[in-house]
Amino acid sequence: MKKKILVTGGAGFLGSHLCERLLNDGHEVVCLDNYFTGQKQNVVHLLKNPYFELVRHDVTMPFFIEVDEIYNLACPASPIHYQYNPIKTIKTSVMGAINMLGLAKRIKAKILQASTSEVYGDPKVHPQTESYWGHVNPIGERSCYDEGKRAAETLFVNYHKQNNVRIKIIRIFNTYGPRMHPNDGRVVSNFIVQALKGEDITIYGDGSQTRSFCYVDDLIEGMVRMMDSREDFTGPVNIGNPGEFTILELAQKVIGLTDSSSKIIYQPLPSDDPMQRKPDITLARKELGWEPKIHLEEGLIKTIDYFKTITR
Ligand code: NAD
Ligand code: UDP
């Protein structure tokens, strides 16, 4: 059945892939974005589709529309961008959630929240299961994002309990792929751009911290499956790739795959930078029949090919 779907943050990295996927599935898509970290460029190829609409709007302000489903992705995701204006970041998460949940309640739409592995903070349980409450510094550099996303989860759960809003929450672990912004500051894009330009590869700390990297196509598949999952499954559910790598290993892989002459240099580790992160995806496997298919090397090659087209 053709659905009308609102994607907030639709001109961003993940949002643009989601809009494309939903259009390919035959739906009508309204993409809402204030272009803080996203860009028109990410969705310009979709504008020729008559079932695609692009709206400039800030989710901290109410928005009125009739749709069947809402994917709420609007929020800067990279540490340098969410720390640029921390008050705005928490407003985007919290007021954005309130505005979108209010809309979902009024029009009886189903709504999915793009939450994050950051709700686990610097985790003391490894790998992270959904039942783990997390270890977050409420006044640290990352708190505007982490606590904003935690409060958004609280709002989602309570709109569901109190107002019967149909909700879905996914906790996204580090995702990478084409259309990451080259100056976005996240580790995969930084390393690839540095390697392609022959610049030093900047490892923060000693590179022993770990992350688990999910390729964007796998992530989008998990997100859509969650939206379509059985009515009483609200999540939260982890969506990520359990393959765990140190940041040093990532740097070495990128140097190898780009055949780069770049040297690794070490810079100070930012405060509250989580030491390890790896999703337990047992719940996603059981409820969504989902697991990632694309291994790190394969995904890196696709991402490097993309960056070659945009990096001089
Ligand atoms: P992104 O920065 O590329 O996309 C975010 C989009 O939201 C951008 O287009 C930005 O302009 C828009 N936006 C920001 N503030 C807004 C506001 N106030 N009103 C309207 N639009 C606004 O980041 P992304 O990687 O595509 O992340 C998308 C979502 O997924 C975010 O909510 C993020 O927290 C979540 N997430 C992403 C990852 C990841 O690894 N990519 C991991 C965990 C969670
Ligand atoms: N990182 C790094 N060099 C960079 C960018 C990031 O060593 O140029 C590290 C960062 O300190 C963190 C990891 O890579 O330990 C992942 O960083 P990212 O900003 O991509 O995501 P997050 O910390 O939110 O998982």
Q: Please give the alpha-carbon distance between the first and last residues.
A: 44 Å
Q: Give the beta-strand count.
A: 13
Radius of gyration: 19 Å
CATH class bucket of the domain at 4-176 and 215-240 and 282-292: Alpha Beta
Task: Indicate the mean pLDDT.
Answer: 97
The helix/strand series, from N terminus to C terminus, equals: EHEEEHHEHEEHEEEHEEHEHH
- Estimate the global geometry from the Cα principal axes: globular
CATH architecture verdict of the domain at 4-176 and 215-240 and 282-292: 3-Layer(aba) Sandwich
Task: Provide a brief overview of the structure.
This protein is of the alpha/beta class and 312 residues long. 37% of the residues lie in helices and 17% in strands.
Description:
The chain is an alpha/beta fold and 312 residues long. It has a domain at 4-176 and 215-240 and 282-292: Rossmann fold. 37% of the residues lie in helices and 17% in strands. It contains nine helices and 13 strands. It has helices at 13-24, 79-82, 86-107, 143-163, 187-197, 216-227, 247-258, 282-288, 296-310; strands at 4-8, 28-33, 52-56, 69-72, 110-116, 167-172, 175-176, 201-204, 210-212, 214-215, 237-239, 244-246, 264-267. The strands form four sheets. It has a seven-stranded parallel β-sheet, with helices on both faces. β5 (110-116), α4 (143-163) and β6 (167-172) form a beta-alpha-beta unit. The longest helix is centred in the first third of the chain and has 22 residues, at 86-107. The site of uridine-5'-diphosphate has 14 residues, from α5 and β8.
